[in-house]
Amino acid sequence: MPKIFTSETQKIGEIGENVAVKFLVKHGFTVLDRNYTKKWGEIDIVAEKDKKIYFVEVKSVNRETPGDYRPEDNMHPKKLQRLARVIQTYLLSKKWDEREWQVDLLVVSLNLKDRNAKIKVVSDIIL
Predict the structure, then answer these.
(1) Which of 27, 33, 21 has its CA nearest to residue 86?
(2) Domain CATH code at residue 97
(3) What is the 3-class SS of the chain, one letter each residue?
(4) Burial 37-53 (b: 16+ CB within 10 A, else e)
(5) Structural domain of 46
(6) pTM
Protein backbone atom coordinates (compact mmCIF):
# COMPACT_ATOMS: atom_id res chain seq x y z
CA MET A 1 0.00 0.00 0.00
CA PRO A 2 1.56 3.34 -1.00
CA LYS A 3 2.27 5.96 1.61
CA ILE A 4 -0.20 8.81 1.81
CA PHE A 5 1.34 12.18 2.61
CA THR A 6 -0.63 14.82 4.43
CA SER A 7 1.82 17.67 3.95
CA GLU A 8 4.51 19.03 1.66
CA THR A 9 6.97 18.62 4.56
CA GLN A 10 6.30 14.87 4.66
CA LYS A 11 6.88 14.61 0.91
CA ILE A 12 10.20 16.44 1.22
CA GLY A 13 11.16 14.19 4.15
CA GLU A 14 10.43 11.01 2.18
CA ILE A 15 12.42 12.24 -0.83
CA GLY A 16 15.30 13.21 1.48
CA GLU A 17 15.32 9.79 3.14
CA ASN A 18 15.40 8.07 -0.26
CA VAL A 19 18.35 10.25 -1.29
CA ALA A 20 20.08 9.45 2.01
CA VAL A 21 19.65 5.70 1.47
CA LYS A 22 21.18 5.93 -2.01
CA PHE A 23 24.07 7.98 -0.57
CA LEU A 24 24.73 5.42 2.18
CA VAL A 25 24.63 2.45 -0.20
CA LYS A 26 26.97 4.27 -2.61
CA HIS A 27 29.41 4.69 0.30
CA GLY A 28 29.45 1.02 1.25
CA PHE A 29 26.73 0.85 3.90
CA THR A 30 24.12 -1.89 4.09
CA VAL A 31 20.70 -0.54 5.05
CA LEU A 32 19.17 -2.81 7.71
CA ASP A 33 15.98 -0.92 8.56
CA ARG A 34 14.05 2.22 7.70
CA ASN A 35 11.58 4.12 9.85
CA TYR A 36 11.86 1.94 12.95
CA THR A 37 9.05 3.44 15.01
CA LYS A 38 8.00 3.21 18.64
CA LYS A 39 5.52 5.37 20.55
CA TRP A 40 8.39 7.44 21.91
CA GLY A 41 10.29 8.06 18.69
CA GLU A 42 11.64 6.89 15.35
CA ILE A 43 14.96 5.99 13.76
CA ASP A 44 15.02 7.05 10.10
CA ILE A 45 17.69 4.63 8.89
CA VAL A 46 19.64 1.82 10.53
CA ALA A 47 22.71 0.86 8.50
CA GLU A 48 25.84 -1.21 8.92
CA LYS A 49 29.39 -0.83 7.67
CA ASP A 50 32.50 -2.69 8.81
CA LYS A 51 30.51 -4.50 11.55
CA LYS A 52 29.45 -1.19 13.09
CA ILE A 53 25.80 -0.11 13.37
CA TYR A 54 24.87 3.42 12.29
CA PHE A 55 21.65 5.05 13.43
CA VAL A 56 21.04 7.77 10.87
CA GLU A 57 18.73 10.72 11.41
CA VAL A 58 17.78 12.44 8.16
CA LYS A 59 16.79 16.10 8.04
CA SER A 60 15.66 17.39 4.67
CA VAL A 61 14.93 20.82 3.30
CA ASN A 62 13.72 22.04 -0.07
CA ARG A 63 16.22 24.69 -1.14
CA GLU A 64 13.77 26.14 -3.67
CA THR A 65 12.06 27.92 -0.81
CA PRO A 66 14.06 30.77 0.67
CA GLY A 67 14.80 31.09 4.33
CA ASP A 68 17.39 30.67 7.04
CA TYR A 69 16.10 27.29 8.24
CA ARG A 70 18.89 24.84 9.01
CA PRO A 71 17.55 21.28 9.42
CA GLU A 72 20.35 20.32 11.80
CA ASP A 73 19.03 22.88 14.30
CA ASN A 74 16.09 20.54 14.81
CA MET A 75 18.36 18.09 16.69
CA HIS A 76 17.43 19.59 20.06
CA PRO A 77 17.94 17.87 23.46
CA LYS A 78 14.39 16.42 23.57
CA LYS A 79 14.86 14.89 20.11
CA LEU A 80 18.20 13.39 21.15
CA GLN A 81 16.65 11.98 24.32
CA ARG A 82 13.86 10.28 22.34
CA LEU A 83 16.38 9.01 19.81
CA ALA A 84 18.51 7.48 22.58
CA ARG A 85 15.49 5.63 23.94
CA VAL A 86 14.51 4.24 20.53
CA ILE A 87 18.10 3.17 19.83
CA GLN A 88 18.24 1.35 23.17
CA THR A 89 14.96 -0.42 22.31
CA TYR A 90 16.24 -1.35 18.86
CA LEU A 91 19.52 -2.76 20.17
CA LEU A 92 17.72 -4.82 22.82
CA SER A 93 15.17 -6.15 20.31
CA LYS A 94 18.01 -7.38 18.08
CA LYS A 95 20.10 -8.62 21.04
CA TRP A 96 22.90 -6.36 19.83
CA ASP A 97 23.75 -4.80 23.18
CA GLU A 98 27.44 -5.61 22.61
CA ARG A 99 27.68 -4.18 19.07
CA GLU A 100 29.60 -0.99 18.37
CA TRP A 101 27.32 1.79 17.13
CA GLN A 102 27.07 5.51 16.51
CA VAL A 103 24.53 8.16 15.56
CA ASP A 104 24.97 10.23 12.41
CA LEU A 105 22.94 13.05 10.91
CA LEU A 106 22.49 13.47 7.18
CA VAL A 107 21.26 16.91 6.15
CA VAL A 108 19.75 16.66 2.68
CA SER A 109 19.30 19.93 0.80
CA LEU A 110 17.00 19.27 -2.14
CA ASN A 111 16.51 21.24 -5.30
CA LEU A 112 13.45 19.54 -6.76
CA LYS A 113 13.33 21.80 -9.81
CA ASP A 114 16.83 20.79 -10.92
CA ARG A 115 16.46 17.27 -9.46
CA ASN A 116 19.64 17.38 -7.41
CA ALA A 117 20.63 17.25 -3.77
CA LYS A 118 23.52 18.13 -1.51
CA ILE A 119 24.26 16.05 1.55
CA LYS A 120 26.04 17.22 4.67
CA VAL A 121 27.18 14.49 7.07
CA VAL A 122 27.47 15.15 10.80
CA SER A 123 29.18 12.07 12.25
CA ASP A 124 29.10 10.50 15.68
CA ILE A 125 26.56 12.68 17.46
CA ILE A 126 26.74 12.39 21.23
CA LEU A 127 23.46 11.53 22.87
Answers:
(1) 33
(2) 3.40.1350.10
(3) CCCCCCCHHHHHHHHHHHHHHHHHHHCCCEEEEEEEEECCEEEEEEEEECCEEEEEEEEEEECCCCCCCCHHHHCCHHHHHHHHHHHHHHHHHHCCCCCCEEEEEEEEEEECCCCEEEEEEECCCCC
(4) eeeebebbbbbbeeeeb
(5) 8-122
(6) 0.89
Instruction: Say if 93 falls within a structural domain.
Output: yes
Q: Would you say residue 18 has pLDDT above 80?
A: yes
Segment 31-75, tens digit of pLDDT: 999 999 999 999 999 999 999 999 999 999 887 655 677 777 778
User: pLDDT-derived band of residue 118, with 50, 70 and 90 as boundaries?
Assistant: very high
Task: Label residue 35 left, alpha or beta by phi (over 0 means left) and psi (-120 to 50 means alpha).
Answer: left
The count of residues in the chain is 127
